[in-house]
Amino acid sequence: MSEWKKTSCVLCFSNCGLEVTTEGSKILKVRADKDNPRSHGYICRKGANIAYFQNNPERLKYPLKKVGGRFERISWKQVLDEIAAKLKEIVERHGPRSVAYMGGGGQGCHFEAAFGVRFLHGLGSKNHYSPLAQELTGYFWVQGKAFGRQYLHPVPDIAGSNFMVFWGANPMVSHDIPQAPVVLRNKKKEAGFKLAVVDPRVSETAKLADIHLRLKPGTDALLLKAMIKILLTEEGLLDKEYLTGKVNGFEEIKDWFDDVNIEDNCRVCGLEPGQVREFARLLATRKSAWRSDLGILMGRHSTLNSYLELILLALAGRIGVTGGNVFAGHLMPMGSHTPEEDPKTWRTVATNIPLIMGVFPPNVMPEEIDNDHPQRIRAVIVSGSNPLRSYADTNAYERAFAKLDLLVTVEVAMTETAVLSHYVLPARTGYEKWDGTFFQWMYPEYYFDMRPPVAEPEGEPVEEAQIYVELAERLGMIPDYPPELREKAKDRVSYGAALMKLVQANPKAAPWLPFILAKTLGEELGSKNLSALWGLLARFPMMHPEDVTRAGYKPGPLTGEEIFNKIVKTPGGVKIGVVDTESNLNALKTPDKRIHIRFPEMESWVKEVTPASEEAALVNKNFPMILMAGNHMEMVANSIMRDPAWNEGRRYCTMRIHPEDAGKLGIADKDLALIETEAGSATVEAEVTESSHKGQVVIPHGFGLVHGGKAHGVNVNRLAPAQNRDRFAATPLHRYIPCRVRKA
């Protein structure tokens, strides 16, 4: 019998601690890790079924090349030689903008990005398309303007709050916060605590809530404006001291809301003004924390929603304060700061979208390929991503990918994207290598967990880092380094000193340190990912000495080595820092260390959203209903869980429709319904339920996956038009797709 091994879940950003038994490449049993300092023995249904991910019978084992429409197994040397040669030819002929990388944003394995992004930059390209930009680019842009860096994202201080708001979020099943079901049920037991939900649906979290504002789909911006107006006009709700001392731009923006009529806004939202006023009063007078999610991030007015949310929280004084939304610590930010006004910030050539937090939205990639621009994208490396099922407008992706000169997919299984590729490279799963994530949701302490390999790889899959290092070698990207550096890696103290001398002598080597580490220390440790972690930790204590001290370490030249050893020896995670709860706003990077809320480029958008304009915009005679494309539930794991057996016996992919709508259309529960949008159509089983709002139907994401030669469920992204997107950040408006429905 195999022993229990500690690891963590790779299916969502909570990365809860697990214990597994294994045999060879297979996971046999799974249970919660009660010793995990982050998840404390919590496990959800997805994590409990992780074996279906690891034991997928359609795992990739060897490099493949498409020859005459069929895949043939080839050697690693041949595949890397050919890919390197093709990339070199494409860049020399068409320039660096012709190459794009899509990856680096998975739920469980982030170290690949350190190598994939650096390799992309080595080619001279900044065309990084990330899953983060599928949902969050507008939000990142707002955070950058407000806080000085696009990677500064405050999180709710749930422990310190007594009024918790979830807007367009359903943490009871989506785990927007760690251990959400346990945490929220325990908070509900606290005297005086209130839970509020703003959502058109009667979600699992709404059922638990004390207050549920069930607004009409697509009216979030109107409701946010009404709440801002309430704070501006009702006595005692503005935090004037906070605004005076910590906010920049209040006086300049307050008259933007002069014409807001609270009653009219609420009427269009389908809400009682008194209920909205009470909500706003509680928000402004309590220790309020806030978590919004895809309901507004992928809804109408996506970027505007995030901006209005910022203003509302600033007026209530809820940013950077105990019990509010606070800045957590991190080992490494989730991205870079790429303000659009910086001339070095790239824009897409066809759609003119700027890099935001260093990434482009996948929603526009088909248009960046399928055009006549001389610098159009001609080669794409897809790593740990499946755009043919994960991103909007599958039809557009299929047409565009057919026009590529080179499509390389790095994956653990034969995905729909891999099927279209010229080359398919097998990667190890998160249970066959050292890897981890940089998600941070804990406050004030923060942890890092480097998951060790617990299962043996079958065939020839590798760490993704190895692929990029070997391609970089073939293309002559890696700077020269002393041969003795490899030998010095046996003693990391002397190795660190030698590495510093190398960078001092050749500053141009600094950006390539992950690759130099991989070629030297990585070979010694048996993992290139592990060498990258060592490199991060070598600098971390010097960059965050106070956080490290509060975590119990004594900052010095060897503190990084101390933390590294502790992480490697402690599966499940190690506390690496504790932020200062008394001076949380010191995290701000704005020049005046204040929260900026005046964005001149948003003024006209704020003012154009009125009851009259919204009533007109919400009417579509050709497509009179609204499709909510995708929602979190216990049977959804994005497109990671490909084997449908984990959902056997469940109604995992239905179209949920309100009883009144179903009655008018003559649709009964379990009938087949035909749904049509501008992008396409699908036949799907109807599920009649009052959880859906009138006029709204809901189909989950993550299905339509081909397993065993058969598609299981509906690929909702085939119904999502690429043009149905945010005007500024190109975020797909998945939560508001006009559609029509009839009985099939």
Characterization of this structure:
There is one protein chain. The protein folds into 4 domains: 5-54, N-terminal domain of TfIIb, CATH 2.20.25; 64-134 and 335-437 and 445-578, 3-Layer(aba) Sandwich (Rossmann fold), CATH 3.40.50; 157-330 and 592-605, Dimethylsulfoxide Reductase, domain 2 (3-Layer(aba) Sandwich), CATH 3.40.228.10; 620-743, Barwin-like endoglucanases (Beta Barrel). Helix content is 34%, strand content 16%. The chain is built from 31 helices and 28 strands. The chain has a 7-stranded mixed sheet with strand order 5-4-17-16-15-6-7. The model has no long low-confidence stretch (mean pLDDT 96).
Shape: globular
When the domains are counted, the total is 4
Distance between the termini: 52 Å
Tell me the strand order in the biggest sheet: 5-4-17-16-15-6-7
CATH topology label of the largest domain: Rossmann fold
Percent helix, as a range, is: 25-40%
SSE-based structural type: alpha/beta
Number of strands: 28
Mean pLDDT: 96
Figure out the total of helices: 31
Q: What percentage of amino acids are in beta strands?
A: 15-25%
Q: Could you name the ranges where pLDDT drops below 50 across 5 or more consecutive residues?
A: none
Question: Can you name the CATH architecture of the largest domain?
Answer: 3-Layer(aba) Sandwich
Largest sheet: 7 strands, mixed
Radius of gyration: 25 Å
The CATH class of the largest domain is identified as: Alpha Beta
